[in-house]
Amino acid sequence: MRWMIAVALVALMGCKQESAEKPQQPAGEATPPAAAKKLVVGFSQVGAESAWRTAETKSIRGEAEKRGVDMKFSDAQGKQANQIQALTSFIAQKVDVIVLAPVVETGWEVVLTQAKEAGIPVILVDRGIKVSDESLYTTLIASDFVEEGRMAAEWLAKKTNGKANIVELQGTTGSAPAIDRQKGFMEVLQKFPDMKVIKTQSADFTRAKGKEVMEAFIKSDRANIQAVYAHNDDMALGAIQALEEAGMNPGKDVTLISIDAVKGAFEAMVAGKLNATVECNPLMGPLVFDTINKVRAGEKVPKFIQNKDQLFEQANAAQVIGTREY
Ligand code: GZL
């Protein structure tokens, strides 16, 4: 009999012991959730080729920091192979979401199929891609580059009364902005038979290449250059340097229009060397993470979320420059 009491006592002690380990949960309260798991996002960025790109990276990484997101960042130095490698690594690490700024439009099917099979949504930012299966990405958050090209051409036609010999500095070959900014510009030029692109070449969105290509244009056809259309401000600033070094007068004898509306472009407009720039807003960090939250909550998001753009010119540069965030 005594042994039964001893066994009962030990069993009771054991339960007490166990319950003493567990925090006592007041009756009626739900058990607190385990600490919420951090959102893990893999961000594959094109590179650091321009002031615009730096501003975009700062906006997206800054927003991740602000929201306590665990962001794995990869700078591809402008090479698609590096982006594909980064995405493959993100998939292996089982990130929750992939953010991709694709350097060029094509060549993404295989790695995006792997992401889809792994159940990882892909958010495209700033540049689009060409894929046969549009389910390979959830949405694209970007500007309308064709419209930016149209805006640049319409402004230049007005500025030159529809008559100009134009040299064009293209962005990165095969990239959505280079393809579409040229498409929009040429679409408008069909209305102006006396506006002619006499030279066009890629300068890869960089200031250094913009200067180099402009030097070659000046060397080969100086007398005929009346206007420059640059697919981004960094190349336009390089072209301005080349024109000045050749003793020419950028902003006066030669009219320049570019795209991005970075701080350097406003400084050049205030100095009278750049005539106009079309904004392409890079500050998309908050929108990217708001969109990620919607996607993870199972909400339907549009396939294309368009950033609105506007044109700035010398006349309003001075009073606007102080308000610019990038
Ligand atoms: C546009 C972006 C372009 C910018 C350039 O969304 O992809 O790439 O216009 C940048 O400055 O290099």
Describe this entry's structure for a reader.
- With 326 residues, the chain is α/β, with parallel strands linked by helices.
- It folds into two domains: 40-142 and 282-307, 3-Layer(aba) Sandwich (Rossmann fold); 145-280 and 313-323, 3-Layer(aba) Sandwich (Rossmann fold), CATH 3.40.50.2300.
- The chain has helices at residues 2-21, 51-66, 80-92, 109-117, 145-159, 176-189, 207-221, 233-245, 263-270, 285-296, 314-320, and strands spanning 40-45, 70-75, 97-100, 122-125, 139-142, 164-170, 195-202, 227-230, 255-260, 276-279, 304-306, 311-313.
- The strands form two sheets. The chain has a six-stranded parallel sheet, sandwiched between helices.
- Helix 2 (51-66) crosses helix 10 (285-296).
- The longest helix is centred in the first third of the chain and has 20 residues, at 2-21.
- Residues 10-23 have low confidence and may be disordered.
- Beta-D-galactofuranose is lined by residues 49-50, 52-53, 126-127, 142-143, 177, 205, 232, 234, 259-260, 280.
How would you summarize this macromolecular structure in one to three sentences?
Keywords: Signal. Pfam families: Peripla_BP_4. By secondary structure, the chain is of the alpha/beta class.
Which key phrases capture this entry?
326 residues; alpha/beta; Rossmann fold; 2 domains; 6-stranded parallel beta sheet; 12 strands; elongated; binds beta-D-galactofuranose
Mean pLDDT score: 92
Alpha-carbon distance between the two ends: 85 Å
What's the CATH H-level superfamily name of the largest domain?
Response regulator
In this entry the ligands are: beta-D-galactofuranose
Major sheet size, sense and barrel closure: 6 strands, parallel
Task: Specify the number of helices.
Answer: 11
What would you call the shape? elongated
The topology string of helices and strands comes to: HEHEHEHEEHEHEHEHEHEHEEH
Keywords: Signal
Pfam family, one: Peripla_BP_4
Family: Belongs to the bacterial solute-binding protein 2 family.
Protein name: ABC transporter substrate-binding protein
